[in-house]
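Q: Convert this sequence to structure tokens.
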Amino acid sequence: MRGTDPRVVLGLHRSRHERRLLTGALDLGVTALDTSSNYLGFRSHEVLARNAGDLLPKFTVSTKVGYFPSPGGAEHSLDPVRLRAAMEQAAKDLGQEPDLVFLHNPEQSLRDAGSYHQAVLMQACEALDKAAAKGLCSAWGIASWDPSTLLSLIDGTSPRPAVLMVRAGLLVGARALDTAEGLTEAWGPNKITVWGMSPFGGSTSDSVWTRIDPRVFLRDNGQLSRVQAAFRAAYHLPRVDAVAVGTDEPAHLSELVGALAGEVEQATVEAYRHLLQDGTRGQLA
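A:
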């Protein structure tokens, strides 16, 4: 079910996986941890278990499968056998079954699947669904950087993920926002949890955050910083239940947790969405 209270998920993309970050997160009440089999050069699970194995049971741990080591660095695959093996390896390396396993960027393989793309996606989803039923994880989801490929492939026979993870925030374009909302509707808005990711589109130090003032999206815009306001607005672009955000600094994580106290002005968000849509239509004209 969709929740009403926004949540912060600590993402480990590009993280050093330091123990102090995890203890700092717990001190702040952040108890959701998101990683992937391919993070940290395909060593994320092992490093987490080594550095903070005793802390992991205190978190709800999510990870992702879909990328595999290759001579060129990494390759993507939706092969059900490889996905199942990756889930088994994740549980072994973490020292516990993950609470949630995402199918990671399935669009990477679907672009090369030709006319069999729907069958390929369904087989991959069924593999994760069956693995969850067997206890390799508590639930499964889909994490997609570009979900536009997925929307036309979903029908009433599709296994329903528990969680959908998509890009969120002020730097997400109109089409991506519409597609994310379309997928949520297709799977049932009251039956699926939606997470956002990459709320800053890269880094809070990017020059865009000095040129715009996201505090216009807040009802009381004098209480939070621009970074906090951008993070808080991300929960409404598209509407998500949680946002996964990466950092190596507990102080930065504390700043973002503090942003949850802000209230977003929905009318401003809707006006912004209309501007995005008008701009997209102008590009197509």
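The beta strands are 7-11, 32-34, 60-65, 67-70, 73-76, 100-104, 139-143, 163-167, 193-197, 242-246.
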